[in-house]
Amino acid sequence: MSQVALEHFLVVAAVLFALGVICIMTRRNAVAILIGIELLLNAASLNLIAFSRFNDKLLEGSVFVLFIIVLAAAEAVVALALILALQRRLRTVDVDQTNTLKG
Predict the structure, then answer these.
(1) Are 34 and 79 in contact (CB under 8 A)?
(2) Which residues is 51 bridged to in the sheet?
(3) Does residue 103 form part of some domain?
(4) SS3 content of the chain, % helix, strand, coil (to 5)
(5) How many CB atoms neighbour CB 42 within 10 A?
(6) How many of the other CB atoms lie within 10 Å of CB of 16?
(7) Structurally, how many domains does the chain consist of?
(8) Share of the chain above pLDDT 70, in %
(9) Cβ distance 65 to 48 under 8 Å?
(10) DSSP letter at 56?
């Protein structure tokens, strides 16, 4: 059985990052944009784990990934709260129609 090389991890992370950027740039729904941001964070996590695995420093990479997971969870909570507030106030989550944030 052959081992998975570093290049394979980097290709998968690059594809995840590209899909995240495409999702952010093409979607108008706020939830879909949030999913794109999560894809970007997962690509960064995959890169950190891959580099730490191949440099024999698994603990340092895992700690950074743990911080990224916590950051992603906090970002998701705040973003979903904003999306719910927009839905209640404007009756839409389409980011093109949310041109005002006045209270």
Answers:
(1) yes
(2) none
(3) no
(4) 75, 0, 20
(5) 19
(6) 20
(7) 1
(8) 94
(9) yes
(10) T
Angle 81-20-17 (CA atoms, 0-180°, nearest 5)?
A: 130
| Residue spans of alpha helices (H) in 3-57 | 6-26, 30-54
Interatomic CA distance for residues 66 and 89, integer angstroms: 35
Q: Sorting pLDDT into bands at 50, 70 and 90, what band is 4?
A: confident
CATH (domain of 21): 1.10.287.3510
- Token digits for 84? 């719910």
C-alpha span between 19 and 40 (Å, rounded): 8
- pLDDT digits over 12-50, tens only? 999 999 999 999 999 988 889 999 999 999 999 999 999
Residue 10 placed within a domain: yes
**Global pTM value:** 0.83
Cα–Cα distances in angstroms (integers) from residue 102 to residues 82, 86, 89, 98, 99, in the given order: 13, 11, 10, 10, 9
Give the structural domain span for 49.
6-90
